[in-house]
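Today's session is about reading a structure prediction critically. Students often jump straight to the picture, but the first step is always the sequence itself: look for stretches that repeat, for charged clusters, for runs of hydrophobic residues. Only then move on to the predicted structure, which in these notes is written as discrete structure tokens rather than atom positions. Here is the chain we will use throughout the hour.
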Amino acid sequence: ERDREVALAQLRRLAPIARSLVVPDADFQQFRILASALIGEALLVLDDPLGRELLLEAEQESADVPGRDPIATFIANALVSREPEHALELLATLQDPTARLEARLQAAGAIEDPALRSRLFDQAEEDAYWVEHYRGPEALVRMGGALAELDPERATKFFQKALAGAEGSGAQLRSLQWTGVASVLAPVDREWALRIFTDAEQAALQEEE
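Below is the predicted structure for this chain, in token form.
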């Protein structure tokens, strides 16, 4: 308890310093935003309401900052266990679909409300299909892995689509993609994973021939 009070006192002393950080002639005050977010997250962990204030200030000030996805993700992760609705709204503002997918899957573990978590996975599913279209089936594998324990039936659908998506690849690439699927699937369905590993090995041998 004493260590907590010491930490709170130090963080409270830093808060006004963070708020007053100004870089002359800068279009955006990234240092102030980052400092406020970092101190805010630490205070929030210690249940100090000043932490939420700092995080919301950082969110508001970062709204027009170019390349704001990392700071928005940080703020959303800090808030998600306490204000999941707000966190989901913030994640929806991320510009990069790949970053948005990863951030949504990361946040899912902190959301206890099944309905809200299902909505988050619906949103992540849209991102996964967009990313898969441009970058291959790895995004579908990530979705399957994230859903494996929470919704095995839904996870199976993503693993199946990832496997099917690799069908059109050359034998060597197909082998690598199937191996990736099997590696993620192994803790969930060992027998299915072994069959995929076997198929991947055969595809690799086919390439060698």
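Discussion point for the tutorial: The mean pLDDT is 89.
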